[in-house]
């Protein structure tokens, strides 16, 4: 695949259907591949910015559109859109994104990284469990329970989690139990960080106003360093 622009909307095959996403490239045009998984708001400017920021750090970043172009800034509508996405459909779209990136001439890594936020924090673990050896590193940021697999035995990726101590959507006790379960069932390297913030503390566009620049910055640098170590 030849890509001539630093970022663009792309289409790719996924289980017999055409899926779409946002692809961001580093200045060199080539680099290790990372899947960026959206929040329940859709493929927003914030998620595109995350992909752009990863590209600026040397990655080829693909953010698949799990909602078929729908975007909202209303929490009730976001919850409805998330509930209308069957987990198996989301997993299929992400699997197609993995195959698309791995087949790309722009991607220099044999395995991919994956990072997800909110709803994507669950689906990034689903992807790691589903894709096994194709995913070298998985980075979930908080979560809402959607997309989280019941069984982590298929995970071979190293996992680095970022969760909030005061998260009303995914209580920290659940995150700590998730950490223990992944470590127990996968045998992979698992490191979770817990922050004195609220849900979506990394999202500077979050309507609830939970963004915390200090926590976001610390978590981001940890995540990027981790992806560079495991994927680059």
From TrEMBL:
Gene3D superfamilies: alpha/beta hydrolase. The keyword Hydrolase applies. One of its GO terms (molecular function) is carboxymethylenebutenolidase activity. It comes from the Bacteria. InterPro entries: AB_hydrolase_fold (IPR029058), Dienelactn_hydro (IPR002925), Dienelactone_hydrolase-like (IPR051049). It holds the Pfam family DLH. Its EC number is 3.1.1.45. Keywords: Hydrolase. Residues 21-229 form the Dienelactone hydrolase domain. This is Carboxymethylenebutenolidase. It comes from Glutamicibacter protophormiae (Brevibacterium protophormiae). The lineage of its organism: Bacteria, Bacillati, Actinomycetota, Actinomycetes, Micrococcales.
């Amino acid at each position: 695949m030849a890509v001539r622009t630093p970022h663009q909307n792309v289409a790719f095959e996924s289980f017999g259907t055409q899926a779409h996403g946002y692809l961001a490239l580093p200045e060199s045009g080539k680099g290790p591949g990372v899947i960026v998984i959206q929040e329940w708001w859709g493929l927003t400017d914030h998620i595109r910015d995350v992909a752009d920021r990863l590209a600026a750090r040397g990655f080829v970043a693909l953010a698949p559109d799990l909602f078929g172009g729908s975007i909202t800034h209303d929490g009730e509508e976001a919850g409805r859109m998330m509930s209308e996405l069957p987990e198996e459909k989301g997993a299929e779209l992400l699997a197609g994104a993995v195959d698309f990136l791995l087949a790309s001439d722009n991607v220099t890594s044999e395995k991919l990284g994956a990072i997800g936020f909110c709803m994507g924090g669950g689906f990034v673990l689903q992807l790691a469990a589903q894709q096994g050896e194709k995913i070298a590193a998985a980075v979930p940021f908080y979560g809402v329970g959607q997309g989280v697999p019941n069984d982590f035995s298929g995970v071979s990726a190293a996992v680095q989690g970022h969760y909030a101590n005061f998260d009303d959507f995914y209580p920290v006790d659940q995150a700590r139990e998730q950490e223990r379960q992944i470590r127990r069932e996968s045998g992979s390297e698992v490191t979770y960080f817990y922050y004195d913030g609220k849900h979506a503390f990394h999202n500077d566009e979050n309507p609830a106003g939970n963004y915390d620049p200090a926590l976001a910055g610390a978590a981001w640098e940890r995540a990027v360093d981790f992806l560079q170590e495991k994927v680059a």
